[in-house]
């Protein structure tokens, strides 16, 4: 009778061990057919003989620590807008035999809107009426006066170069005499302003 009881107990134990096997999902723990980890009366998880610390992946078992969610990365700063080359020419015109600057506001506004100024080149010119020497000096005064007006308006003088060509770079095609000729030659009485930089 004792032998029969032992045999029956052994068969039951074998059946239980077959039903309660380690499942790949909960590797290292004894589970039932629904993959639920067996627990002792004290709530401790049952290990298989192959359990190791690396198997502590079941919540509530063996010091399992829930992985903290990775912090949301801060958004990357917006890239700085790329600056493009922005070269432009202006002309400041003068009355006959005058070096008085009327206005440079359009040039100043353009310069203030630039992201970077590389250079501002001023080239004075004169019409061909009068002697070459006089016109050369007049074109120089015109360029210097435009430079002074720009500096007074806040434009960086270190970016400026001042040059003059006298009457040697005409653009007007004129004929005639007197007031009509003077009026026609207005395009030659100028300071060319060449600005290079980036916007």
UniProtKB/TrEMBL annotation:
It is found in: Membrane. PROSITE patterns: OMPA_2. This is OmpA family protein. Its main location: membrane. SUPFAM superfamilies: OmpA-like. Residues 1-22 form the signal peptide. Keywords: Membrane, Signal. GO terms for cellular component: membrane. It comes from Neptunomonas concharum. Gene3D superfamilies: OmpA-like domain. It holds the Pfam family OmpA. Residues 81-199 form the OmpA-like domain. InterPro entries: OMP_bac, OmpA-like, OmpA-like_sf.
